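Following the same procedure, the fold was encoded as tokens, giving this record:
***
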Amino acid sequence: MNSKSVASLILGILSLVIPLFGFFLAIAAIILSRQSINEMSSSDSQGKGLSIAGRICGALALAGYCVLFLYLAKYWF
């Protein structure tokens, strides 16, 4: 089991749950997911599904935070 894929899933889930720091956690989840998929393509380690799930959770959180930032910017300016 690739440890980076587990970490990307954990960070992806935390990015959905934790406000304010979730934006940075989502970026970290996407980066770790990308690295783990690249490592798994060259070796026989498992965990590709975890890595994909981490990437999806991170992308959803990132999209949600972008919408939230745009919504707040609309009313501030």
User: Anything to note?
Assistant: The mean pLDDT is 93.
